[in-house]
Amino acid sequence: MPPSDRVLTVEQVKTFWVSRLRSEALPSKSTALHPEKDAARRSEIHRRRGLMEEIRAGHHDLAARLVCLSHNVEAWSRLGDEPKSDAAEQRLIRLREHVAKLATLEAQREAAVKVGEAADRMIARSEEIQQLKVLLARQDELCG
């Protein structure tokens, strides 16, 4: 978000993002010398449409809230309203702490899944070893 003294809502941040995506220049169209540019252009159009749909669907609301609060801390400060700036900054700090906790929990979840998968592999290997021991014992009986 460009710096300003305008206090924003999350919806205004999302609207700004969508507008920015629409207004950014696309890669140049293909020419006889560079027909591959058409694929790059189509890919970029597809990427932007997907991102705009994600923004509208709320997939980036947390990021928008962080941007909104960060912007508003500065906006309130520019307007000379330090109590509102301080309150917005406290909300921003709490939200960042929440995001950090979520990231930690997600990392722990991923680690637990990997440990579970490793345990499953160990059980499978142990079963294979037991089956091989039974086969070897049978062969020893037949040969011995």
Overview of the structural elements:
The chain is mainly α. It has one domain. It is 80% helix and 0% strand. It has four helices and no strands.
> Roughly what fraction of the amino acids lie in strands?
under 5%
Instruction: Tell me the structural class.
Output: mainly alpha
Order of helices and strands: HHHH
If helices are DSSP runs of H or I spanning 4 or more residues, what is the number of helices?
4
Helix content: over 70%
Terminus-to-terminus distance: 82 Å
Task: Flag low-confidence runs.
Answer: none
Q: How many structural domains can be distinguished in the coordinates?
A: 1
Q: In total, how many beta strands?
A: 0
Summarize model confidence as the mean pLDDT: 92
Measured on Cα atoms, how large is the radius of gyration?
Answer: 28 Å
- Main sheet summary: none
What is the general shape? flat
Quick overview of this protein structure:
This protein has 144 residues and is an all-alpha fold.
List keywords for this structure.
144 residues, mainly alpha, 4 helices
Which helices and strands, and how do they pair?
Layout: H1 10-23, H2 37-57, H3 61-78, H4 82-143
